[in-house]
Each structure stands twice: as structure tokens, then as C-alpha cells.
Specification:
The complex is a heterodimer of chains A (381) and B (325).
Chain A (H helix, E strand, L loop, with lengths): L4 H21 L15 E8 L6 H4 L1 H15 L7 E8 L4 H14 L4 E3 L4 H11 L1 H4 L3 E4 L15 E3 L4 H15 L5 E6 L2 H12 L6 E5 L6 H10 L8 E5 L2 H14 L6 E4 L6 H6 L4 H4 L3 E2 L12 H13 L7 H19 L6 H15 L15
Parallel strand pairs in A: 1-2, 1-3, 3-4, 4-5, 6-7, 6-8, 8-9, 9-10
Helix pairs in contact in A: 3-13, 3-14, 4-5, 7-8, 9-10, 13-14
Chain B lengths: L1 H20 L2 H26 L7 H17 L5 H25 L2 H14 L16 E2 L15 H25 L1 H11 L1 H6 L4 H27 L1 E2 L6 H14 L7 H21 L4 H22 L4 H16 L1
Antiparallel strand pairs in B: 1-2
The chains are: A alpha/beta (381), B mainly alpha (325).
Chain lengths: 381, 325
């Protein structure tokens, strides 16, 4: 009896496993139709920081996009289909972005990813979830990382922001034109976002006297105080460029205000963390912002003469009442609008491949007329 | 032993068969289960057999993950070699740690390993070769072309991790039945008595720690394979706790239930997700519920099946036998 037990047990276990395998094998196969598309709905997904340090600023993007999609849905949708945006939190952490993106594709089965935020985050997600290999459209990423323009590697990724390299070159030219010979300090994240900026400044021939590279998340006010007192000494630095997130800008400028510090010429801010409206809402005193030079790829959100700003502002006020309309919101709504246009261009029965083809066609048709070379287009910027 | 080998081969075939029949998400989850199986197996070896507690196995997994990623990204070594290196180097690292661990016991050992789990992964932020929070990209490469075009990357991960898990479990089930396994059990039971029987307790403890670390390193390397990126955030403190919970739920004194713990660890976030979606996708629920479920499970397991479900079943069977007899 005892001698028989292991054999019996083995038999039992294998029987159970085999039965389980049979049961699983009879599960319905995946539908052959397009994932995320029904006759009434188009399911899209976004990953962005909804929690953590940078959430206060960039966490507004999904809400802004949803506001624009609601506006479109209330006006008939896209060929009768309503857009449903599923938003996942990645806390600005690459491994969480990987999980969130995998979930969006495999669990929620979205049609496309739109507006994914963060260079390091989305790079990790793109590689791990293999968006390119699977043919999942990856529309209008919220990063200006120049690497996403590599169409051989990222076949399905489309950018909307100008690349950081391009932006850095523009800033370098501005400095060369107006402040030739001044000593420049550069504050960047120690990841591909920061490296892109450094590459841009280098190509333009600007050699920073001081470069501060910090690991993501190490941009506390205390750290910023250390940078200012240790490295940004008045005799060493004339212009300090912050090419990082709004969190970094706020920390550095806040620390500077506390220490009564100002570079002899002044501050320069990159587009990512340079929206004065957002910085002021985040508590940066106006006095320290005065005279700071920021780059931007969009109209000022407080510009009431701009048609688009007014249009987006009225929609945002209707669907997200009580929230401040800033550059992040403007950018979110802009990519939502582009998404809707792309979906319309993909026709009445959109497929993933069709959507990508439609964008590529529009891009090649408008490229010669584009006022500004955008990242992701085959230009020799 | 030959019977066991056949059983493992049969299990492998069944898993292969299942992997072909289910959708991508299940395959991916299957790969995670295989990774957790190895990690939990390493805890069972360490805690269940040699009686040493580790709350820092997440950090050892991180060590293995970084070794593998550096091997592939910087030295362009083949994937399998990276895994071997991960297991080997983490084993050596664990052996060094084991020297310290062998002198500590109970809460002191738990505290020391906990500090490791807190501190070690964030070290990566200090050295640029480790890539900071962005981490290092581990290029898993494409599955071999002869497997066909439809063969997805996830299925490839599933094959690799499952094969690794099967080999590990076979090796582990053998070593735990060998002289070493018996020695470790003696150690756990009563250190003084074991010493009197001629067991070199210090050496055996270090050996157990090193072997367990090696397995954790392998699990870490495989985890990194499934997400293609290694960064400190892949190895949070909660991972170490989850592994211990998984081991307790599986039955820490016995290897048989090891997959149960792994399945539970993969299912818990899914349950949390579906509960959260009922409450309107509340972010707070999504981020806190998995931790709550893991802790609740640990408490329940300790209360009701302190020696694992296997023993409970065994008891029930005996009771029934006693009744019928």
C-alpha cells in the first residue's frame, strides 16, 4: 500500500494537470477582429504618472485627453464610435510603465497606445511590450526623445513634440547669438532625456562649464540647495539651464529663492519644465521667474488671442471644471485632437495597420509644408 | 530519482502543451509563475530546511538581475551564459553574506537581511554603469526563427523560464532529499543536537545561504528577462515580503506546494485590479490592495496551515483513514 502511494500520487497529479490542460485548450480563441474596436467603441490606452512626485503636473494629461475625447464623443464620436481612454499609472517609474503597458495591450486589449509619457518609462515599455513587433500603434508620445524618430526600431511610434536635441540646439544658438562667451551650467536627468539634451548642446558647439546630472527622483529642494552652493557659484556660472521636469525646475528655483541666488545672466528653462503658469501654480515665486527664459513648442496657455487655446480652454472648463488650464493640459488636448484626426483618417473600419498607414501618409503629405521639423519625421534636423 | 525525472519531463510536456493553447496574457503570467517558483524554492531551501530567515531575497534577485543585464548589455554574452553567471555570482555574494548570517539568528538575521532589501537595489542610483532609475536594457533577442513567425516573444520567455524552473525544482527536490537536506533539517530542528551529531553548523548554514542566494539570483535574472529592463524599482521591499508569504502559503517545510505560492503571487494583483475596477478604478485601492491581500494571506496561512496545505491534506487523509479503519 505504502509502496504504491507515490505512483498513485504521480498518476493523480498528472491526471489533474492533463485535465486542466484540456479545459484550458477549449477556451475560446481570440477574436480575429481588431482588438479594442467594436461597433460602438474605440478603446485607447495611456500610461502616465498619476502618483508620485511628478504626478501633480503631468498627471493632468489623461484628464485633458479625456476631456477632448468627451467633447468628440458628445458630438458623434469617430464615425459613430465613442473613444474610451483607459489610463494607467506608472508613477514615472520604468518598470511600472512596462507592467502598465503590458496590461493595456494584453488585458484591456486596447486598439492603440496614445500620449505615453516619459522617455525612460516609454523606452522600457516599448522594448518590453514589443509594440513595434506587434504592430500596436503608439501615437503621439509625450516625450521629445530623439531616439523615437528611429523608424527602423520603432515602426509604430509617432512623436508630436520637437526633439530634445533640436530644442537644445535652438537654446544653444540663442545663447551664442545673445550671450556669446558666457559660462553655462546645465542641469539634466541622468537618463536618455538628459543625454539627448547634452547631445543637442554638444552638436551646437556649446560646452557647459558645469553639468549636473542627477538620478530621476533625486531632485529634491535639499539637493538643489547643494547644487547651487556647491556648483553654481556666481564666479563659475553666468547662465543656468534647467532641462528637466517641472518638479526639478520648481525645486531648483525654489531653492534659489530661499538662498537669494540668481545666475549673473539668468535662468533658462527647457520646454518640459518651463511653463511659467505651472511653476507659479506650484508655488515658485514670481520674482525668481522674472527674466527667466523658457522655450516652448506651443502657444502660451494664457494667450487669449489664440484660437486653439480658447477652443481647448472652453472644452476643458466644461468637462473638468475647477482645474487650472496650463501647458500640460494644452499639450494633452492637442495630442487628443491629433489622435481623433488620425482615427478619422484611418477610415470607417480602422485597423492598426491602417491607422499607422494613415498617419504616415498625412505626414509625408504635410512634411514639405510643416513650419517646424517635428520629431519622428524623416528630416535632417 | 528516475521516477522523479520522468515526472518532471512529463510536467514539462504538459506545460508546453498548455503554453500553446492559451492566450498571450496567460503565457506571460505563466512565465512570472515560473520565476516566482524558483524564488520561493530558494526561500524554502533557506528557511524551511536550514532554518535561516531572509527578508532580503528581493535584493539577491536584484543582484542576479543586474549581473545578467550587465553580461548581456556590456559583455554581449549569450543569454544562457548570463543566467549561469547570475546564479553563480549571486551564489558567491550570498556565500559572503552567509558568513555574517551564520553568526546571527532569529530577529537579528531578519533585520540584517531586511536592511539589505532596503539598501541594495537603490545602490544602482549611485553608479552610472548600473543605469540609475532608468536601468539597463536587457535585450532578450528574438525567438529562434525555426519556431515560426507566430511564435511570440512571451512564449519564448515562457519556455525559458519554465525550463529553468523545472531544472531548478528537479535539482532542489534531489538535494533536499540528500545528505545535505537531512543535515539542514537537523540544523533547523536543534542546532546543538546537530552539532553533537558531528554537523559543522557554520559551514552548513553558509552553504545553504549560498545555494539559496544562487537560486534567487537566477530568479532575478529571469524576472529581468520577462520585463527586458533591470532597475531598482523592479525589486521593491514588498517583493521580499511577497516571497516569504509565498513560501509560507506553499508550505515552507516542503517543496511540493511551491507552485501554489507562485500562482497566488501572480493572481493577487489581478484580484486587486478587478476589485479596484468595481470601485471606479480608484488609484488608492489599486496601489494598496495587493499589499493588504499578501499580508492577510500570510496571517491566515500562519493561523490555519502553519505547515502548508500539503500537510493539512495529509492530516485530513489520515483522519479519514483512521475513521474508516
Amino acid at each position: 500500500m505504502i509502496r504504491n502511494t507515490p505512483k498513485k500520487r504521480a498518476l493523480f497529479v498528472s491526471a489533474v494537470i492533463a485535465a486542466g490542460a484540456m479545459a484550458l485548450s477549449t477556451m475560446p480563441a481570440q477574436a480575429a477582429s481588431q482588438p479594442g474596436i467594436t461597433s460602438t467603441e474605440i478603446k485607447l490606452g495611456i500610461t502616465s504618472p498619476l502618483s508620485g512626485k511628478v504626478a501633480a503636473v503631468y498627471g493632468k494629461i489623461p484628464g485633458a485627453m479625456k476631456a477632448y475625447f468627451s467633447h468628440v464623443n458628445d458630438n458623434g464620436g469617430v464615425y459613430g464610435r465613442k473613444i474610451n481612454l483607459i489610463s494607467k499609472d506608472d508613477a514615472y517609474v520604468p518598470t511600472l510603465a512596462v507592467k502598465a503597458t503590458n496590461d493595456l495591450i494584453m488585458k484591456d486589449k486596447v486598439f492603440a497606445i496614445v500620449g505615453a509619457l516619459g522617455t525612460a518609462n516609454h523606452l522600457a515599455a516599448l522594448r518590453s511590450a514589443n509594440l513595434s513587433g506587434r504592430g500596436v500603434p503608439d501615437l503621439f508620445v509625450n516625450t521629445g526623445f530623439s531616439g523615437f524618430a528611429d523608424k527602423a526600431k520603432y515602426k509604430t511610434t509617432f512623436a508630436v513634440l520637437p526633439s530634445y536635441v533640436m530644442e537644445a540646439k535652438i537654446m544653444a544658438k540663442y545663447i551664442d547669438d545673445n550671450y556669446k562667451g558666457k559660462k553655462v551650467a546645465l542641469i539634466v536627468q541622468d537618463d536618455d532625456f538628459g543625454l539627448d539634451a547634452i547631445a543637442g548642446f554638444e552638436t551646437a558647439g556649446l560646452k557647459p562649464a558645469v553639468t549636473i546630472k542627477f538620478p530621476t527622483g533625486a531632485d529634491t529642494v535639499a539637493a538643489a540647495q547643494g547644487w547651487i552652493t556647491g556648483k553654481l557659484k556666481p564666479e563659475a556660472v553666468d547662465i543656468a539651464i534647467i532641462f528637466a521636469t517641472t518638479t526639478t525646475s520648481a525645486a531648483v528655483l525654489g531653492a534659489a529663492a530661499g538662498l537669494q541666488y540668481r545666475p549673473t545672466v539668468g535662468w533658462m528653462l527647457g520646454s518640459v519644465g518651463g511653463d511659467s503658469n505651472t511653476l507659479r501654480a506650484g508655488g515658485v515665486p514670481l520674482a525668481i521667474l522674472n527674466g527667466a527664459i523658457g522655450t516652448s513648442f506651443a502657444p502660451d496657455p494664457s494667450d487669449t488671442t489664440d484660437e486653439y487655446v480658447n477652443f481647448f480652454k472652453s472644452i476643458y472648463a466644461k468637462y473638468v471644471p475647477g482645474s487650472t488650464f496650463d501647458l500640460t493640459v494644452l499639450q494633452g488636448m492637442n495630442s487628443a485632437m491629433l489622435t481623433v484626426q488620425a482615427l478619422r483618417a484611418a477610415g470607417k473600419n480602422p485597423t492598426r495597420a491602417g491607422l499607422i498607414k494613415a498617419i504616415e501618409e498625412v505626414v509625408s503629405a504635410t512634411i514639405s509644408r510643416a513650419p517646424l521639423p517635428t520629431n519622428g519625421l524623416p528630416t535632417n534636423s | 530519482m528516475r521516477k522523479r525525472l520522468l515526472l518532471f519531463i512529463a510536467l514539462g510536456w504538459v506545460l508546453l502543451f498548455i503554453g500553446d493553447r492559451v492566450d498571450e496574457l496567460r503565457v506571460y503570467q505563466g512565465a512570472s509563475i515560473a520565476v516566482y517558483t524558483i524564488a520561493i524554492g530558494s526561500i524554502i531551501l533557506l528557511t524551511g530546511y536550514s532554518g535561516q530567515i531572509s527578508l532580503g531575497h528581493g535584493a539577491l534577485m536584484a543582484f542576479g538581475g543586474y549581473v545578467a543585464a550587465l553580461c548581456v548589455a556590456n559583455a554581449s554574452l549569450p543569454l544562457w551564459f548570463a543566467f549561469v553567471m547570475a546564479a553563480l555570482l549571486t551564489g558567491i555574494f550570498g556565500g559572503v553574506l552567509g558568513f555574517a548570517a551564520a553568526r546571527l539568528s532569529g530577529p537579528y538575521l531578519a533585520g540584517t537581511t531586511l536592511a539589505l532589501a532596503v539598501g541594495l537595489p537603490s545602490l544602482a542610483n549611485q553608479f552610472s554603469i548600473l543605469g540609475g532609475e532608468q536601468g539597463i536594457y536587457l535585450d532578450p533577442g528574438l525567438p529562434p526563427a525555426r519556431l515560426g513567425e507566430d511564435f511570440s516573444q512571451y512564449k519564448w520567455f515562457f519556455w525559458i523560464t519554465t525550463l529553468a524552473a523545472l531544472i531548478t525544482m528537479f535539482w532542489l527536490s534531489n538535494i533536499l532529499r540528500s545528505k545535505y537536506g537531512r543535515t539542514w533539517r537537523a540544523l533547523r530542528g536543534n542546532e546543538v543536537a546537530a552539532q553533537l551529531c558531528g554537523v559543522h553548523t557554520g559551514r552548513q548554514k553558509v552553504l545553504a545561504f549560498a545555494l539559496s542566494s544562487g537560486l534567487a539570483g537566477l530568479a532575478g535574472a529571469l524576472l529581468v528577462l520577462t520585463i527586458s529592463t533591470v532597475s531598482p524599482s523592479a525589486f521593491p521591499l514588498s517583493l521580499s515580503f511577497a516571497l516569504v508569504t509565498g513560501a509560507v502559503v506553499s508550505g515552507i517545510y516542503d517543496l511540493k506546494g511551491v507552485m501554489l505560492g507562485a500562482v497566488i503571487l501572480v493572481i493577487i494583483p489581478e484580484i486587486a485590479d478587478s476589485v479596484a475596477s468595481r470601485f471606479g478604478d480608484s488609484l488608492k485601492i489599486i496601489s494598496t490592495l495587493p499589499g493588504l491581500l499578501v499580508s492577510a494571506l500570510l496571517i491566515l496561512a500562519v493561523l490555519f496551515t502553519p505547515n502548508g496545505p500539503g500537510e493539512k491534506l495529509h492530516h485530513l487523509r489520515h483522519k479519514r483513514k483512521a475513521h474508516s479503519g
